Amino acid sequence: MLLLNGLGAHHMMWAPLLRELEGATIVFDWPGLGKSPAPPLRSHTIDAFVRIVEELLEELQHAEVDVVGYSFGGIVAQHLAAARPDLVRRLVLVATSTGGGAAFGRPLAMAALSTPLRYYSKSYLAVTSRFTSGPTEREPEFVRHSAQLRQAHRPDVLAYYGQLIAANTSSSLRRLPAITQPTLVVHGSDDPIIPAANSCLLASRIPEARLLVTEREGHLLLHHEAGRAVVAINDFLMAREHRTSEPWRTGRAVTMAEAKRALRSADLRAAQPGGAMHVLVRRILSG
């Protein structure tokens, strides 16, 4: 199992999921994050991040893997699965979006993510968690633990903004139908950063996909050991046949009409210039 992490995040933040997963896992830090050195100037594109993953798997001599893509890592995972169906057996997309054309997050949440300060300042994280987190992620003890974990490996600032640039200048919309792998799309119902409507869009466009929405959880749903998402991912990936796994049986297929309704509602709730641009991109790329 290959785990692709989120914006600014490092390998230690996978701990709750790693304690649940039963199979062998591959974790790594994107360049400039965690223990990986900051990269020289290079193209900040999603394809560049896909190449990093391909080179890693080639170096490790893995011919096929299951991929869990979380947040930013989920965007990379979509492009990887579409481009390299030979490399990806099953796909899990968690709290992620298409990049360009996505339903935009709430204004205050987007403003908080525009800087890596939450990895540097405990007080900044505490203040911004009020509008970047779901109900289960606002507990003082959780916020304190999250702050300590984030500050263990602060991201290189240029690497952080490189991820932001890559995510916002790419779109997987036209590549989603090419993802033929069994795909479990997991999202928290109360995610203010990447609204759950994005999961509907993904599940409706990927041919073999099921959607699992976890109630009262937010963007950090993988950071809770007791979270439903952590258990579901393990069940899906460890099942001999993916259709017999509980998350596949309890998850649901999403129609295009359902996705459009969810996106309209999310677009209205987060009306702002950035969101309007993403709506335009979605309309163009959706034909």
TrEMBL record:
Species this protein is from: Geodermatophilus sabuli
Name used for this protein in its record: Pimeloyl-ACP methyl ester carboxylesterase
Location of the AB hydrolase-1 domain: 1-223
SUPFAM superfamilies: alpha/beta-Hydrolases
Lineage per the UniProt record: Bacteria, Bacillati, Actinomycetota, Actinomycetes, Geodermatophilales
Entry superkingdom: Bacteria
One annotated GO molecular function: catalytic activity
